[in-house]
Amino acid sequence: MKKYILSLLTLAALTTGFAQNKNFLDTPFLETQASADSLVTPDRIYLAIQLQEADAKDRVSLEKLETRMVRALEKCDIDTGKQLTMSGLSSNFQSYFLKGQKVLKQKGFELLVYDAATAGCVLYELEQLGVSNVRMQRSEYSKMEQLQTELKALAVLKARNLAEIMAGAVEQKVGKAVYISDSGNYGPVYGPVMAMRAASDDMGREKSSYEAIDAEFRKIKVEVNVQVKFLLE
Q1: CATH number of the domain that residue 203 is part of
Q2: What's the DSSP call for residue 214?
Q3: Among 44, 71, 148, 214, which one has the highest count of C-beta atoms within 10 angstroms of its own C-beta?
Q4: Distance of CA 83 to the CA centre of its chain
């Protein structure tokens, strides 16, 4: 008897589920897709700087080199207390035949700058110190989340406009949305497009200060895609 009741309950559940699925399939709907994109200039550029004591008799100590680096960065209007962080520290103990023993120290830093002109200034000033191990780690757009939200809203509006055009072609109207899905392609982050040079006067002699040229980092393409299902009335 219990098995019989259980079988009836199971059959009733399956029947109800089938009826619901059938009702859903019988409901007319329209599915559309749309995208929205934008190009933005990175405003947070991270540079990796590696300081290392030169393996030479007259090498500059790491401590002095670090002090000189800070002074050089300040020439580029950089707040080293906020924009410069240490990323690594190591020493290499080496023994040299007829030269005794030396400890070569190195220290890594991460520097945050906000535009290509400042990045170019940093490269120039550090080059004057003999620091050439500088590379771009990554670049970001600080308002990325806000931009993505705005693009998603724009894409949904485009999807509805498209749905209304398609529904109008068959003399129907678009009802409420019953399904919305989004995906995004926020684009690769490219290396800097900029040049670095020492400015020269009319006599062709090199000046002692850096003058930035009119250049910026290559823009980042931000793209979102949405898929929306609307009921048809």
Answers
A1: 3.30.110
A2: S
A3: 148
A4: 18
